[in-house]
Amino acid sequence: MRFPAWPCSSPPRPAPSRPAKPSSSTAARHRCRLASMKELTVHATWDAEAKAWIAFSDDLPGLAIEHPDFDMVMEILLDLGPDLVESNLKLDPKDVRFHLIAERVLPVAAE
Fold first, then answer.
1. Is residue 9 part of a domain?
2. DSSP string covering the chain
3. 10 Å Cβ neighbour count for 54?
4. pLDDT digit string, tens, across residues 30-52
5. Neighbours of 56 (CB within 10 A)
6. Is the pTM of this model over 0.70?
7. Distances (CA, A) of 26 to 32, 93, 100
8. Structural domain span for residue 87
9. What is the CATH number of the domain that holds 45?
10. Residue 95: other Cβ atoms inside 10 A
């Protein structure tokens, strides 16, 4: 019997004769799932003039978020993201993750 060469696949194991202990195989499957996911980079920058975070992505057409609260930017991204991924990229949102990069320049001394 041949098994797939994919590193995340493994041959079936015989059933254990005693209750199974938690093993690293669950963690390995999780790592493999993460490794096979498509990662979309989202940039969020603070606009001092607008007093808001502006989030956009070259990887995800149509994504544009503006909000003064960074936590809300993340919430909006997770709310809108799956629909944008599905409609604009024709991907299953379960196979995609966001890499959110936030940048804000702060003065050292108060003005």
1. no
2. ------TT-----PPPSSPPPP-HHHHHHHHHHHHHSEEEEEEEEEETTTTEEEEE-SSSTT-EEEES-HHHHHHHHHHHHHHHHHHHH---GGGEEEEEEEE----SS--
3. 15
4. 667 667 899 999 999 999 999 99
5. 15
6. no
7. 10, 22, 26
8. 38-103
9. 3.30.2390.10
10. 11
